[in-house]
Amino acid sequence: MPFMEELEEFKKNLNTIRLGGIWKGIKITEEDIKEIRRDLLKKLEEKW
Known about the structure:
The protein is 60% helix and 12% strand. The protein is an alpha+beta fold.
């Protein structure tokens, strides 16, 4: 049973980047990255 729990946790974290230092415990998902990328592109378009 512990193996299945570990496997499930692994599957949930496949698209997650774990950070260390002051960011320890903070998770950034692929969706977070895409959202920030869209915001940055929008700001660049407004500027140029």
